[in-house]
UniProtKB/TrEMBL annotation:
TM segment ranges: none
Gene name, Swiss-Prot/TrEMBL: kdpE
Record has Phosphoprotein as a keyword: yes
This protein's name: KDP operon transcriptional regulatory protein KdpE
InterPro entries: Bact_response_regulator, CheY-like_superfamily, Sig_transdc_resp-reg_receiver
Superkingdom to which the source organism belongs: Bacteria
Keywords: Phosphoprotein
The keyword Phosphoprotein is assigned to this record: yes
PROSITE patterns: RESPONSE_REGULATORY
Length: 239
């Protein structure tokens, strides 16, 4: 099914407050907190959302649907989002809008080089910036008719979604001790912690990433992260 075809007519019915009415956005994101932010952004904009938490799940969606836009986190549990961007950018027919997304400020160039039309730096909280990132990349025949109202509304996800991310991190810590899992954990926790404003956890994730890059022992870093994750899980349970 080609979801983007539905947008061609639905876009004519969009209104200034819901400029993405009829658009279907596939969000490929492993963080529940970040995904909740994207859900709220799509809801406020009038777009429908489909979600995938890994490359495998995204490919299952894409075998059945062709969304109007795809927003792809670059760090995923089963590989790099850059690979999916490259694949989608070369497909015919092509998805109208492909956006990379990451908490790494240096990742934008890699996303664009891989074939993305644009880039969303995490945390994505501005409704106006989200809408502009998609609308500015749509082809002319899919642009909504008329003027739109640019919103400065800030989207703040439910903090309970952060607890889900901490539970996921705890699972990675307990179930997998491969080099690949440590790199993923550092990237995942760093991005989530920065989105929420959790400086201690963000610093611990950065220290783990630095030790991995330099080939040093990571015993102290992983122990610190395990303790911080458990603290956050216990705090959330108490609430």
């Amino acid at each position: 099914m080609d979801d983007s075809d539905l947008f061609a007519s639905a876009s004519r019915l969009s209104n200034p407050r819901r400029p993405l009415l009829g658009l279907t956005v596939l969000v490929v994101e492993d963080s529940r907190y970040a995904c909740e932010a994207m859900r709220l952004l799509c809801l406020r904009s009038g777009a429908r959302i489909r979600r995938a938490d890994c490359l495998k799940s995204a490919n299952r969606h894409l075998q059945v649907y062709r969304p109007s836009a795809v927003v792809i986190d670059l760090g995923l549990p089963d590989g790099s989002g850059l690979d999916l961007i490259r694949e989608l950018s070369q497909c015919t027919p092509r998805v109208s809008v492909i956006l990379g997304m990451s908490g790494d400020d240096n990742a934008e160039a890699a996303a664009i080089e891989a074939g993305a039309d644009g880039f969303l730096p995490k945390p994505v909280t501005s409704l106006g910036a989200f809408q502009t990132a998609i609308l500015s990349k749509l082809p002319p025949d899919r642009q909504p008719v008329g003027l739109r109202q640019v919103s400065d509304e800030e989207i703040i996800p439910d903090r309970l979604a952060y607890r889900d991310d901490m539970a996921h991190a705890a699972e990675v810590l307990n179930d997998d001790e491969s080099d690949k899992s440590w790199d993923y954990l550092a990237q995942f926790l760093g991005g989530v912690a920065r989105s929420v404003g959790d400086a201690p956890l963000a610093d611990a994730a950065a220290a783990l990433a630095a030790s991995r890059k330099e080939g040093r022992s990571i015993a102290s870093e992983t122990a610190q992260i395990a303790g911080l994750v458990q603290e956050r899980l216990q705090e959330r349970v108490a609430i």
